[in-house]
Design brief:
By secondary structure, the protein is of the alpha/beta class. It is built from three helices and four strands. About 25% of the residues are buried.
Length: about 110
Amino acid sequence: MKIYLSGPMTGLPDCNYPRFNEVAGILRNHGYDVYNPAEYPFDGDPKDFPIREAFAEYSKEICLNCDALLLLEGWESSKGANAELHLAKVCGLILDEWKDGMDIPPPPNRG
């Protein structure tokens, strides 16, 4: 099972990457394949971030490669996370919200 992480980035310290990376690490340690948009390859100034190109890649992941979308805290006020949520709903992904300390079952066996 591949999980797409979604949540707020714009206007948060370090674009909220530390939180995305923390949750991605927890999920990977439990055996999940994770698409973490905080790992999008860009090292420049945040004001120069190629949002259109990045969002095209994010959308492709949601539509073609992911089985579930996991929303990080604060997603409700994020335009990007809301767009990802709507896309995930249209594509029929499993939807859930991250909660610290939540029980994380092992990924389903796809044998």
